[in-house]
Amino acid sequence: xxxxxxxxxxxxxxxxxxxxxxxxxxxxxxxxxxxxxxxxxxxxxxxxxxxxxxxxxxxxxxxxxxxxxxxxxxxxxxxxxxxxxxxxxxxxxxxxxxxxxxxxxxxxxxxxxxxxxxxxxxxxxxxxxxxxxxxxxxxxxxxxxxxxxxxxxxxxxxxxxxxxxxxxxxxxxxxxxxxxxxxxxxxxxxxxxxxxxxxxxxxxxxxxxxxxxxxxxxxxxxxxxxxxxxxxxxxxxxxxxxxxxxxxxxxxxxxxxxxxxxxxxxxxxxxxxxxxxxxxxxxxxxxxxxxxxxxxxxxxxxxxxxxx
Length: 308
Hints:
CATH topology: UDP-N-acetylmuramoyl-L-alanine:D-glutamate ligase
CATH class: Alpha Beta
Order of helices and strands: EEEHEHEEEHEHHEHEHHEEEHH
Distance between the termini: 15 Å
Number of helices: 10
């Protein structure tokens, strides 16, 4: 199975809790679609990441790190003038995170303007699974968003599947209405929906989790897993839905990347012929491993649950 992931990968500055001022920060990398792509590659799945970086030293470092993770970077494009985006992350005593971003002129925002973009999209069109998020759409101008919606249609026309996470970051949008319109445009072309209740509530108003699942099912998604933090997720298939709780409670150190890890675990299991229930548990286990460590993409260790 081939997987194409489209999105933005950035340099991550995370406060370690040690030292004062600049001494208290260390570098890494992250980005919602990138996080999921790396997890999918760690499961041993052929995963390509479509985005853009620059010529700058940080961009070169990101390329090296992502190559070492096993990602196919054939269509990670290079912008002649722009550089990698950057974000800083801090976590509180409960592991909840806050962000600051420097990404308005990142290379990824102009990825579809590059001459190599057409070849990248043509390759993505042949993927067995295309994965993207609302952030993947948010970093692009309206014309770029329309091209990604068209790509989703083309993937499905060839017999592939589309997975989507409505990951809503208000600062990336002119208004919630604009973000809502983007979700509604792509919704009918999604096979596997992986929304989060808090994001959907911010976009569509307060509602029970069953309503979120029903909206995605009505748009045509064959599978819906609505993430709901420590409660687990609501799995909706055919005409039934059921909650899938995490197998165990975990004390969170850093909650960044938890949803991205769930998405990757769910998709990896489904691509390896596990049932949706088994896939949800795989997603929960990977998310639990991530939040018990620092960083959006923790260093792989002996306890990493990259198995289905």
